Structures are given as structure tokens and as C-alpha cells.
UniProtKB/TrEMBL annotation:
Gene that produces this protein: def
Catalytic activity: N-terminal N-formyl-L-methionyl-[peptide] + H2O = N-terminal L-methionyl-[peptide] + formate
Enzyme class: hydrolase
Keywords: Hydrolase, Iron, Metal-binding, Protein biosynthesis
Organism name: Streptomyces humicola
Obligatory cofactor(s): Fe(2+)
Name recorded for this polypeptide: Peptide deformylase
Function, as annotated: Removes the formyl group from the N-terminal Met of newly synthesized proteins. Requires at least a dipeptide for an efficient rate of reaction. N-terminal L-methionine is a prerequisite for activity but the enzyme has broad specificity at other positions.
Top-level taxonomy: Bacteria, Bacillati, Actinomycetota, Actinomycetes, Kitasatosporales
Domain of life of the organism encoding this protein: Bacteria
EC number: 3.5.1.88
Length: 181
């Protein structure tokens, strides 16, 4: 098992637009395993690479017993909306109602470079949208109305984890991935 530290709100990597994956190699498969192991141990419904400090367009999910991952996702959203509770492993303990599309069709690739399409509604749709937002530097509290966002920011400032130091990152000259020390 390879559980990594999850980056918390305030870490700059969470606000950066992640880069497309171009190499479907062993390092990518290791990243998907690290994401899966960390998400499962947390436990969470999804985890995006930036949450581990890796600025690449890949995420994992586990919803209704279905475990999956998606590389370089491209989403098509339904017009129908849902409003429901949402949380984030980078904002531990915080949950707020957030509007999302009711359904999604996500096209992308597996860790082996094979094309894949994932269709989902309700929780799976919410999870795929949430994780794809992470790849674009968007955190779910950005989607809250002004009053809820103000409440969320106050809760973040008061949270026990607020102001935690960012893990040190070592970048290998042979790797495009950052590894937490």
C-alpha cells in the first residue's frame, strides 16, 4: 500500500491547471496506484493528482462499489442539475451543498492509454465533476453561493489543519512527477 499525504487548502498546487498526461508509462501507473491507495485509506469518493502534489490530469474514484480512474478527462454535462452535500479531502471535515450537473459523460484514457468513456449520474457525476475541477485549479467551495463561501472560508480559518506546512517535494531529473519526501 502506498498512501501519500494529501495537500490541504492553501497549497498552491491545488490552484494550478494540471498538465495533460503525455506518457502512459510505469510512473503513471504508480501514480494511479498511489491515488487509489490514498483515496481508499482516507476514505474518500475521489482523489485528483494535484491533491498529491502532482500537476497532471488524472484522478481516481470509488462510488457505489465501482473503482476507477480517468486520465485527461473531457466532460459533457447534462442540463439537469442536482444540489447536494459535497466535501473534499483537501478540506477535511467541511461539507456544503453544491450545485452540479445531474449527469456526465466523461471521455479520456486509462493508465495504459486506452480510450474510455464513463457515464454517470448523481454521486458518480458529482464525483467526476469535482475531481475534474481539481485538474482545473477549482475547489468545490468556489462553486458555492456568496453566503456559503463566506461561511466555508471562516470554517477553514478556524480548522485545526489550517496553516499546516506544505510537504517538501523532490523532483527527480528523470521524472515529471513530484514525490513527497
Amino acid at each position: 500500500m502506498s498512501v501519500k499525504p494529501i495537500r490541504l487548502f492553501g497549497d498552491p498546487v491545488l490552484r494550478m491547471k494540471a498538465q495533460p498526461v503525455t506518457d502512459f508509462d510505469k510512473e503513471l501507473r504508480t501514480l494511479v496506484k498511489d491515488l487509489t491507495d490514498t483515496m481508499t485509506a482516507a476514505p474518500g469518493a475521489g482523489l485528483a493528482a494535484p491533491q498529491l502534489g502532482v500537476s497532471l490530469r488524472v484522478f481516481t474514484w470509488q462510488v457505489d462499489g465501482e473503482l476507477g480512474h480517468l486520465v485527461n478527462p473531457d466532460l459533457t454535462l447534462t442540463e439537469d442539475e442536482q444540489d447536494g452535500p459535497e466535501g473534499c479531502l483537501s478540506l477535511p471535515g467541511l461539507r456544503y451543498d453544491c450545485k452540479r450537473a445531474y449527469g456526465v459523460v466523461a471521455k479520456g484514457f486509462t493508465m495504459y492509454g486506452d480510450p474510455v468513456t464513463v457515464e454517470g449520474t448523481e454521486l458518480l457525476a458529482r464525483c467526476i465533476q469535482h475531481e475534474t475541477d481539481h485538474l482545473d485549479g477549482i475547489i468545490f467551495i468556489d462553486r458555492l453561493d456568496a453566503e456559503q463561501r463566506k461561511e466555508a472560508m471562516k470554517a477553514i480559518r478556524e480548522a485545526a489543519w489550517a496553516g499546516e506546512p506544505v510537504p517538501q517535494v523532490k523532483i527527480s531529473p528523470h521524472s515529471t512527477f513530484g514525490r513527497a519526501l
